[in-house]
Amino acid sequence: MSTTSLTPRVLVTPAAEALIDLLRDEHGPLMFHQSGGCCDGSSPMCFAAGEFKVGSNDVWLGCIHGCDFFMSASQFEYWKHTQLTVDVTKGRGASFSLEIPHGVRFLIRSRMFTQEEEANLEPVFDGEEYPNSVS
Asked: Pairing with 65, which of 20, 46, 109, 113 sits 20 to 30 Å away (CA)?
């Protein structure tokens, strides 16, 4: 029997985890969404859980530090072959994300999956059908 675990599609850095903890203390449970639209749409945006309505045009990629992470389906088509890592950097983005008042912003670092990783990826779910593991 294989003990190989599935390859996660989205990860989080320790710096981003610390910011998530701070934001969770301020706002309660959180969620992330990354679209392909305006207002830093290619950056991950952090919202209070349930404040951003997800649906069939969104894809659930997994959880990072206890937060569901969604991406628009059209954006996922471009990024589906990459592992995403949520990080944080100084500077304000042009979004409505919860971290903006702190003078920082979340960002994505990415790398291509290896063939072995791609053959063993965690599943994704439609935004209306995701396993609701955190929310």
From this structure: 113
| Domain 10-117 in CATH 2.60.300 | yes
Q: State the CB neighbour count (10 A cutoff) for residue 32.
A: 25
- Complete DSSP assignment for 29-96: SEEEEE-SSTTTTTS-EEEETTSS---TTEEEEEEETTEEEEEEHHHHHHHTTEEEEEEEEES--SS-
- Distance between CA 86 and CA 110 in Å, rounded? 9
pTM for this predicted structure: 0.90
Where do the domains of the chain lie? Answer: 10-117
pLDDT in tens, the chain (135 residues): 455 699 999 999 999 999 999 999 999 999 999 987 665 557 899 999 999 999 999 999 999 999 999 999 999 999 999 999 999 999 877 678 999 999 999 999 999 999 999 999 999 999 888 877 544
**Half-sphere exposure at residue 13, Cβ-oriented, CA atoms within 13 angstroms:** 14
